[in-house]
Amino acid sequence: PAKIRLRHLLDAKERGRPFTMLTAYDQISAQVFEAAGIDVLLVGDSVGTAVLGYSSTTSTTHQDMLTFTGAVARSVHRPLVVADLAFGTYQTGPEDAVRHGVELIRAGAEAVKLEGGHEIVPQVRALVAAGIPVIGHLGFTPQSVNSLSGHRVQGRETAGADQLADDAIALQEAGVSAIVLELVPAAVAARITEVVAVPTIGIGAGPDCDGQVLVWQDMAGLSGFEGRFVRTFAHLRGQLQTAAEEYRAAVTSRAYPGPEHSFE
Ligand code: KIV
Ligand code: NA
């Protein structure tokens, strides 16, 4: 199958065919998702909470993003690889955004994602002018968890919903290639999906977005996180624990390793 490019996401929107994005942070997960036909791999700054043990993505560093982006980009051919700009690498202005965006592209990303609306339009314009495709991220924006007072659905009131739609249009005019909508009422996400020409990618944003994204350890039942918007398509946490318990039992009882695992 052909290499996925941003153009494919726009085609999918125009044809009304939902596309798929999952986070990936390492070689094995990236290769498994490529084999499964996932269109887009997001090296999210969620690597900080999903892998590195930070309590919020505000702790994820640019160096973290370069390391994990490299791991994913080296491991796959077909999916589009998108990397998050870490907290603090673009809020300070367009020059910083471009400098860090260039490094993510150098590490193997094919587009970068950053959080925010009208306030980051200069950064989006500068990145696009530098030849770096940009994906926006509106609604609940985890890097602003402290300002937003926790993980809350955004745009529930009319004014908030209108602001989200205005921000989506501002991002489109600035040149984004797609927009992630996180924790947004389904009707608001549907409205934004209709008013913008670029694809929307939902997480906790209902069924009408053009694509969907989940953190892979949530999708696979490995993290143990089961928020309302998550469906667990496997139960890997329990399976992995059982495997480790059986390994432990086999070693402590001397059932493993046997002669078949040993060298003459
Ligand atoms: O970092 C991440 O995993 C994300 C997705 C949840 C959209 O930004
Ligand atoms: Na992110």
From TrEMBL:
<keyword id="KW-0460">Magnesium</keyword>
<dbReference type="InterPro" id="IPR040442">
    <property type="entry name" value="Pyrv_kinase-like_dom_sf"/>
</dbReference>
<comment type="subunit">
    <text>Homodecamer; pentamer of dimers.</text>
</comment>
<dbReference type="Pfam" id="PF02548">
    <property type="entry name" value="Pantoate_transf"/>
</dbReference>
<keyword id="KW-0963">Cytoplasm</keyword>
<feature type="binding site">
    <location>
        <position position="113"/>
    </location>
    <ligand>
        <name>3-methyl-2-oxobutanoate</name>
    </ligand>
</feature>
<feature type="active site" description="Proton acceptor">
    <location>
        <position position="182"/>
    </location>
</feature>
<keyword id="KW-0479">Metal-binding</keyword>
<keyword id="KW-0808">Transferase</keyword>
<comment type="similarity">
    <text>Belongs to the PanB family.</text>
</comment>
<feature type="binding site">
    <location>
        <position position="45"/>
    </location>
    <ligand>
        <name>Mg(2+)</name>
    </ligand>
</feature>
<comment type="pathway">
    <text>Cofactor biosynthesis; (R)-pantothenate biosynthesis; (R)-pantoate from 3-methyl-2-oxobutanoate: step 1/2.</text>
</comment>
<dbReference type="InterPro" id="IPR015813">
    <property type="entry name" value="Pyrv/PenolPyrv_kinase-like_dom"/>
</dbReference>
<feature type="binding site">
    <location>
        <position position="84"/>
    </location>
    <ligand>
        <name>Mg(2+)</name>
    </ligand>
</feature>
<protein>
    <recommendedName>
        <fullName>3-methyl-2-oxobutanoate hydroxymethyltransferase</fullName>
        <ecNumber>2.1.2.11</ecNumber>
    </recommendedName>
</protein>
<dbReference type="GO" id="GO:0003864">
    <property type="term" value="F:3-methyl-2-oxobutanoate hydroxymethyltransferase activity"/>
</dbReference>
<feature type="binding site">
    <location>
        <position position="115"/>
    </location>
    <ligand>
        <name>Mg(2+)</name>
    </ligand>
</feature>
<keyword id="KW-0566">Pantothenate biosynthesis</keyword>
<dbReference type="InterPro" id="IPR003700">
    <property type="entry name" value="Pantoate_hydroxy_MeTrfase"/>
</dbReference>
<comment type="function">
    <text>Catalyzes the reversible reaction in which hydroxymethyl group from 5,10-methylenetetrahydrofolate is transferred onto alpha-ketoisovalerate to form ketopantoate.</text>
</comment>
<feature type="binding site">
    <location>
        <begin position="45"/>
        <end position="46"/>
    </location>
    <ligand>
        <name>3-methyl-2-oxobutanoate</name>
    </ligand>
</feature>
<feature type="binding site">
    <location>
        <position position="84"/>
    </location>
    <ligand>
        <name>3-methyl-2-oxobutanoate</name>
    </ligand>
</feature>
